[in-house]
Backbone:
């Protein structure tokens, strides 16, 4: 049977007949109730189905239906990646520190050994320099050299002492190939004439100090040619014997710690030098 709605107002009564019967309404209610029950029992229903079902209901019944809240959106923070990166870096640091700790003792030992060797060498060199000191005072020419110089027509009073020094390794080295005569250790400052001093201060075409050739009387009384020049440094200056100096060393078997004397004189304006070994 259809449902009849009657209007109680005045005038002609108007009847409206709805399009849904009682049985159909009951069916709709049952279906909706079943849907609500299934929705409540199934908490894993997807969000789209929840929204679709929710908006299909009448507006009056929407508030009675259990609506599942949307789960919070979890944005992956950078803290996790940063923590992983820190862990990796820390592990690498630990490994490298372990490797370095293993290798450091060997390197320390090597550096300490090298440092000790350098110190010992420098101390040995200082000791040698301290031990070797000229002990003759005043210096005296040997008799054989006096006779030789007198036979050349030179008075012994004109012979001047240039330097008395101990020979060092650098004086006998083939890398240096020279005998050093520090200017501040020269005994007779006038063993060179003013003209010779001027020549030694000049420079040649290759921008090097000019050399002066001397005749040299060796400890064995042999005669040879040798050159004298001057080397200037930032804090010191030295006269240097060059060229045939290493041949003089070999012929006279000169060794470190030997004490030598260098004498100077002129024979008819010809410069001469005499090298003497001092017995210790």
Residues:
């Amino acid at each position: 049977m259809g449902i009849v709605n009657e209007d109680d107002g005045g005038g002609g009564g108007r009847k409206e007949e709805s399009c849904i019967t009682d049985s159909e309404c009951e069916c709709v209610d049952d279906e909706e109730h079943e849907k609500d029950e299934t929705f409540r029992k199934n908490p894993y229903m997807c969000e789209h189905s929840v929204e679709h079902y929710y908006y299909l209901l009448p507006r009056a019944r929407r508030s009675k239906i259990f609506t599942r809240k949307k789960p919070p959106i979890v944005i992956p923070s950078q803290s996790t990646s940063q923590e992983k990166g820190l862990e990796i870096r820390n592990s690498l640091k630990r490994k490298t520190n372990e490797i370095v700790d293993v290798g450091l003792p060997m390197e320390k030992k090597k550096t300490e050994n090298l440092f000790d060797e350098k110190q010992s060498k420098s101390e040995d060199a200082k000791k040698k320099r301290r031990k070797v000191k000229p002990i003759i005072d005043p210096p005296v020419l040997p008799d054989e050299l006096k006779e030789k110089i007198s036979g050349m027509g030179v008075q012994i009073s004109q012979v001047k002492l240039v330097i008395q020094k101990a020979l060092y390794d650098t004086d006998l080295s083939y890398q240096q190939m020279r005998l050093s005569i520090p200017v501040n250790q020269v005994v007779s400052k006038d063993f060179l004439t003013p003209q010779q001093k001027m020549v030694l201060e000049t420079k040649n075409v290759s921008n090097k100090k000019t050399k002066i050739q001397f005749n040299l009387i060796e400890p064995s009384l042999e005669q040879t040619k040798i050159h004298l020049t001057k080397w200037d440094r930032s804090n010191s200056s030295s006269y240097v014997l060059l060229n045939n100096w290493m041949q003089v060393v070999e012929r006279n078997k000169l060794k470190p710690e030997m004490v030598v004397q260098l004498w100077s004189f002129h024979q008819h304006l010809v410069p001469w030098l005499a090298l003497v070994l001092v017995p210790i």
